[in-house]
Amino acid sequence: MSETAATSAYTLLPDGRLLGSGLTRGPWDPGHQHAGPPTALVCRAIEQAAAPQGLTHLARLTGNLLRPVPVGEVRVELQTDYVGRNAAHYSARLLAQDKELARFTALVQREVEQPVPPGTPGHPLPSAPRTPQDSVLITMPFAGKQQSYADLVENRLAAGRFFNGPACVWFRLQHPLVQGEEPSPYQRVAIAADSGNGISAALDFKTHSFVNCDLTINLLRRPVGEWICLDARTALGGNGCGLAQSALYDEAGLIGHATQSLAVRARA
User: Fold this and answer.
1) 116 lies in some domain
2) For residue range 67-81, what is the model confidence (pLDDT) as tens digits?
3) Backbone dihedral angles phi then psi of residue 192, each to the nearest 5 degrees
4) Strand, helix or coil at 131?
5) Which of 58, 59, 64, 74 is nearest to 19 (CA)?
6) Counted domains in the chain
7) What is residue 2's predicted lDDT score, i.e. its pLDDT?
8) Of 3, 43, 9, 5, which Cα lies nearest the Cα of 174?
9) Has residue 1 been placed in a domain?
10) Going by DSSP bridges, is the β-strand pair 10-12/57-65 parallel, antiparallel, or unpaired?
């Protein structure tokens, strides 16, 4: 798949590996993937393993990001840790070039019809400040001549300032995650959720890096629709560490939260 012709983030190879295109390229290094697409690949593998058990709600996904993911071939190794009546636990590894790049754990739950009683405190849940249709179309600042994650997603600004402090931003996939497949709602969340530290950047990309070392996504229900919103803010500890926190929404309202631990460094 050439970079100029890429129409999906990944192509599935006959041996089960996945070939990443330029659409996976992140902002920190032109040879490295944004962590969102490979996290969504792990999500995909977990969903495929859990569905035959009747477990369909991905309630939590945690990734420990060990090494940069190169733009190229990757594979996912999945292990079932426990399957019960109402929940299952899975662990996974992301590998490339014979190296382990990330480790994941996940909780998948069984869904049942259980309406929220009228008058329940804190309900109905909040919504994003603006719909995607009422938000401003924007482009990520690292978009350029090379294909990248900025071309994989469409963004609309609902509140705040893009890549300059707290921001509320809608995400929609412009290309499939895997060629020939319709991405699941959970995969759409995974692709977007890793961008919280970028869209709410408290420091200038030109003077600092603030790469996340992990990602945890907690979801209270199945997302609906194509659009996922991150209401994100970054907090800095003054010790080379930080935390990005994102409230996650779809067009129906709050769906969960995501957090990222940051390594903050001044550029040479």
Assistant:
1) no
2) 999 999 999 999 999
3) -85, -40
4) coil
5) 74
6) 1
7) 44
8) 9
9) no
10) unpaired
Interstrand relation of 99-109 and 136-138 (parallel, antiparallel or unpaired): unpaired
3 in any annotated domain = no
Q: How far apart are the first and last CA of the chain?
A: 35
pLDDT digits (tens, 9 = 90+) for 174-186: 999 999 999 999 9
Return the axis-axis angle of helices 185-193 and 36-50, rounded to nearest 10°: 150
Q: What CATH number corresponds to the domain at position 182?
A: 2.40.160.210
72: number of CA atoms within 13 Å, CB side? 11
Per-residue pLDDT at 96: 96
Residue 263: which H helix or E strand, with range? strand 253-266
Residue 261 pLDDT greater than 90, yes or no = yes
DSSP-derived secondary structure for 84-105: -SSEEEEEEEEEETTEEEEEEE
CB-side exposure of 172: number of CA atoms within 13 Å?
A: 17
Locate tokens 């032109």: which residue? 30
pLDDT band at residue 30, thresholds of 50, 70 and 90? very high
Residue linked to tokens 């192509």:
11
* pTM, two decimal places: 0.96
pLDDT confidence of residue 159: 98
In a domain, 36, yes or no: yes
Q: 230 is in which domain, residue-wise?
A: 10-111+127-266
